[in-house]
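Entry:
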Amino acid sequence: MKTTYKEFNLNSTFKGDKVWNADEKQENYNNHIITVTNTETKQKVSFEFWGSIANPEIKTEKELLYAFYCFVEDALSGKMDFSEFCSEFGYDTDSRKAEKTWKACKRSTVKFERLYTGDIYDFINKLQEVADN
């Protein structure tokens, strides 16, 4: 699936099954690699997205935009400091899982900032309007 949003080309590749939690050897059969390219700067990033059991594969532009929205939400969460992140999402600050999740969000922040230098809050608000409709 491919689509365009503003200056971004989005491409989803359905990968299928993948172990998503190596510690528990849990498999998820709904893995996607989403590649986003800024057509103006030629910057490109990729991220994983997991489809649900009810909707395992991205098949529409709206679903692809929703995956992009989730990535930007993670990037926004990565801008928080750790204690703020834990408070916002109900994690204990002593939790290794919380720290691992927070660090993954911080990596999303770095990736997003490679793609876009404007205000992330304005961007996500506009993207949400498109992804929700």
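The first strand starts at residue 2 and ends at 5.
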